[in-house]
Records
---
Amino acid sequence: MTSGIHHITLIARKVQANVDFYVGFLGLHLVKRTGGYEDPNQLHLFYGDAAGSPGSLVSFLIWEDGSPGRVGHGQPSEIAFAIPPESIGFWLTRALQFNFQTTGPAQEFGEPVLRLKDPDGVIVKLVGTNALSEPAPWASRDIPETDSIRRLRGATVLTEKPKETAHFLQNHFGYRETAATETIRRLTSSSGDVVDVRDAAGFWSAAPGTGTIDHIAFRAPDEATVLAVRADLEQEHAGATNAHDRKYFFSIYVREPGGSLCEFATEGPGFAVDEPPDALGSTLFLPPHLAKDAAALVKLPQFALPGEPRPAQRDLPFVHRLYYPEKASDRTFVLLHGSGGNEIDMLPFGHQVDPHATLMGVRGRSTEEGFPRWFRRLSMTTFDQRDIRSEAEAFVAFVEDARQGYGLDPDRTVFIGYSNGANLLAAVMLLHPGAIRNVVLMRAMAALENAPKPDLADTKVLMLTGKDDPYGKHAPALKLVLAEAGAQLEALDIDTHHGIGDEDVAAIRRWLDENGL
């Protein structure tokens, strides 16, 4: 039976830092970029050799701003790549050039090993070995093919049940024990890669999150083998999952006795099923069940490969996400979510209004029972006035920094807020006249008490209220305040409730055209 590692999947926080390390520093080949199968808001990247061969692959689930995990028993703790033994010096020098701290080289099971950490803190080992075949070496622009990473050497698994974990991997995934120390059992596959089962008794348990290894996927020659192993696991009551068609391979998941998640994946059909072999990794794909939802692409974080032009990313007081369309106009939408939303929730809506607009989704800094808001709510219709004023002032400072940092044109920037986000924009207009000039308020109400009476003659406002919105009865007071301030106000009552949809899109498009925005 074919055995060995198919791929190893990890969780990363920031996509650009991840790409810069694995493609820019390690010189791996980006062979596939997709949306997540389980979470459509999650980007999934695969790196490997020139052909994206099983055994060369590491993949990353990108959890932007996700919480850090904790390495412990019940999960893998290290990944290892194979390099030619004579290339250790090259990689030690390269790590110094890139300012990556390393330890070693040290001997592990008779092989020289360099250790370093990726941007999320995962331990990455570079192992000098000739024990593995080289299916398709990949040479990057500044790494000679003679020194390039060959494929995965293996991984380390932490377990409180080393004997049971080792037996499970040998029995179901074709490994055999080839060496051991006092705390590590080395298992080797027919492909030559290794899994080091480390006794972690007394260590703390693992916690999922960024900077951790999610699972190891092992190789199966075909679908029939996967199904046969699943039947064996079910007979053992091992808790195997249903089979999944992941388009590029067919697989099941199961947890070994020590708690680490394992996948069993077929070698084919491979990554060339939807793009040419010489263009692997150049196109962003959605999983088949989301393929018709083009707006889902807008929610995925963007990045640039080394050598490509990359958009600026500024560290500003409000968490935000930018989306740059392939063919961008000079129009920018700044999008503010409603209660419980986040910086990506409104991106598909903005893209629907104008597919060529640059989008900036922003996240409110207040929280209510763990969910983001723009300011504190005391009841369903009363709000913390000091918090409104404080957050409005902070948002104005953010807007000014964003204009300078991203080169936004105030005349071509439109602020679109929904519900709680719309209420903040209304407060910003009244408290800081002129800070934002083109504003769309959807399902807004007068949250600001004792509002000042500014001059808003140069401010264009579209206010959209749902006729069946239970909060709609509070909208007229805001309309009156804006009208008395002299805003160029268009207020429409549309046939909808508190949610937003196609009628909002149509109204905003018309308003933008009529106002030359």
---
Amino acid sequence: MTVKSDYSLYMARKTPGLDDAPSGSADDSGSETVGRRSYLKLAGAAAAALGTTAGVSSAAPDGVTDGMDVIELDYAQYGSPSQVYNVNDNRSGIPPEFVSSPTNGTQTALRTEFSGAQKTANLEYRFEENGYDRPSEVYTRFDLYPDGIRLGTNDTVRIFWLPLTNGAGSSGGGATDGTNGWSNAIGFAHRNDSPAPNGYNFFSYSYHMDRDGSGDFEMTSTPIWMDQWNEIEGYVRCNTFSNGQANRDGVMRYWINGELAYERTNFRMTTTESNLIEGVGPLGYVVGSNLSGSALIYDNHEIAIGGIPEGRDDTPPYDEDPTLVEPGQRDQYDERLTYRNGDREAEYRIYVDGEIVQSDWSQATYNETVDIATDEYAVVDAVAAPGTVDGYFFDGEIVAISADPEPSALWVSGERLDPSDYPDEPADSGEAAGEEPLENVILVDGLGTLRTSRYEFEVGGDVAKAAYGGASINAGDRIDAGHVIGSVAGWRDAFRFSGDLEQLTVDGPARVLVNGEPVDPADYGDDLPHILTIVGNGSESSYEVAVDGTIDTMVGDASEAEANLLSDSVASGSIETGVHRFRFSGELADFTFISGGTQVYVGDQRIDPDDYNDGVVLPHAIVIDGTEAEGPSDYSFAIDGDVIKSSYRDATLEPTDAVEGASVEGVVREDELDAYWFDGNIADFTLAGDAGVDIYRNVRDVDE
């Protein structure tokens, strides 16, 4: 069994033969409305033989090979879905219906609505009922708009039969023997690092002769996007057979938004002509979440019997444009870039310290305005039309980006980037560097380490993020004048700076290099450069303090005996008279008086603890637990009350996790915990990954 989810064959450009060997990679960004292709315009010979039927054109289109029948289903010509499809097994109780919105370039679309976790219906276009023999080879395409669907981890939604041959061997766990039916249902699931909640990855679910148990469930890493139109294409060719014996040469291929997402060429489905393809059509079947009110909306359903239509789009001028390469050449480059433009025309420029070429891979289309010049850097200049996607392959690192207006999304090899994190021009150019060039570079190297390292440093001049030595550009790394706070875990961060390195603290196993030479953080100022002081006022006050770096008591201070270090970043204590002093790195993340209250200082500046916890003790805790996860998990949530970071259960306090008002966005890495104190209720929560989520009510008493 082979599942290939790493292709970029653009089916609108080339019709593959059965022995083609496509290559490339899945796109890593969301999609805008799919432009409806015009390669299936009119129905073929079989419809002509039947006469002109409502909703089915009857002339042969260009590019259709001899013996191919092409059917376009125009929903606007029908009164109800049952006039197009055999509608059966409706478990939701909500009948499918034609709607006028949303549509994708037509007057009418088909809507099937969920009720609970129930199947909507089968809508089968059965070939024999429409005057055709059962074919052995079928291609079909349709546009899909998943409306309001949000899945829990491991939930699945089946969307289409492609194909279905009814019988005991086509569903329900029955054995498939080559004579009693078979099927393939396609859909999307919250698995394989789905870019949830915006998209979920495509899967194939087959009943065939060589499966064991229930259907053969095969995931890919190609997303179907929620709340927008997607183009879905599929091609199925039955295996050959003789004397009741099936050969292993059945073919299934599926394309998502122009990208080949799945392919197998060794299926055994049938041993007899009476068990060829019965039909294709929409299907709504959820396993997991309650999707009441959500729907699957279909448009532009087109079918070709006997092959794949040719000549579907113009081929980009690969031979004429030396900076344009075919998607199949992706393996020759280390990185891929997707530039998705918004709803206005934009001009942009990208600097790369290596080589970059344009490619119409995945959802990208050829942009004839792209100009690539090579000098000290490879520089891309382009004008992007509204709603378009430009694609590139490159080696090296992106060092600068300027765009007016900024793109709606920018992706590099699966990671979404913020253009504002890059300078408009390379840091070592005259305009970008200003009066004093950023002649030094500091590299914080976390490659090969097993846990997060938090770092903090100060320089005597200016500092800017840099894509140096394979470093990433991380939006969560904070720069305030010459003061930098960030973290690494299995990757590198780099910065160019002017002046001298004056302070450096690293909490974790990462190493640091300055201008290529390893340095010892102990040689640069104090490891814990900041001082926190709590002053007693004669009445007992209990407190808890958390920082996003490291905290420790001061030698010889009362804090050594009277305060408690709950973790590397959290301390607590009770004070009546005298002072408690702590040294810490990073920033003060949380200061809470559990009871009482008194004066608190950071350095020589008195602070208001209410600025760090809104003056209340937040009683509840939410913990995102990555200790048993197989990789990092992205999460976001909103509270209808207050929320702050917490070290509850010895959670880490990552500077990259952001709390904006009552909204939180963060990443919990494997073997770590993220935690937050809150009051009120959780209004919204999304999780991409397999981390656990625990909610603890009334962990701390609230002092009324």
